[in-house]
Amino acid sequence: MTINVLLVDDHPVVRSGLAGLLSATEDLVVVGEAADGEAALASAGSLAPDVVLMDISMPGMDGIEATRTLLDGGFEGAVVMLTSFSDRDRVTDALSAGAVGYLLKDSEPEAVLSAVRAAASGHAPIDPRVAGALLPSRTPSPGADLSAREREVLDLVAEGLANKQIARRLGITERTVKVHLGSVFRRIGVTDRTSAALWARDNLKN
């Protein structure tokens, strides 16, 4: 499967380095580049990439606002933040805006490639160095932070349904299912659907 990627960063040298890294693989294709949030919205709308690698600090519209606007507008791909910021506020703001993943710019090249593939497959790639920012200050009730739709998706995963079947059952697109799953994974602290299904069976008893 070919994964189409949009690179968003205000530094040409960063975009060039990422383009070279991704283009050296057989399954990742860079379909476009953007230097700011406004350009990212236009490019994502016309190119419909599977994954957007998004910087945070950029002139004009920053990456967090661009991510929120993009997803509010119906974009069905996955957004992964790639930034130098590891503070709690930016991490939580980015994920709240709808990003499914968060990586630091000093990550190993293979970690970036793995994150792009994971995001395209519906997983939530989070750099271990910022994962602590996602830990709640108190222990909530299991599933308390899940939206009604996220619970529906998680219940169907626990029943063993594939993304395409879940999409058909709920009347949504398969990409939307992946976005919901990414959010679910972050909220319950897992990285794959098998672990999510086991978590649901243990914690969401009807």
UniProtKB/TrEMBL annotation:
From the UniProt record, give one GO term of the biological process aspect: phosphorelay signal transduction system
Family annotation (Gene3D superfamilies): 3.40.50.2300
- Cite the HTH luxR-type domain residue spans from the record: 139-204
**Residues annotated as domain Response regulatory:** 4-120
Q: Which keywords does the record carry? A: DNA-binding, Phosphoprotein
In terms of Pfam families, this protein maps to:
GerE, Response_reg
Which InterPro entries does the annotation name? CheY-like_superfamily, NreC/VraR/RcsB-like_REC, Sig_transdc_resp-reg_C-effctor, Sig_transdc_resp-reg_receiver, Tscrpt_reg_LuxR_C, WalR-like
In this UniProt entry, the residues modified to 4-aspartylphosphate are D55
Q: Name one GO molecular function term.
A: DNA binding
Instruction: State the name under which the record lists this protein.
Output: DNA-binding response regulator
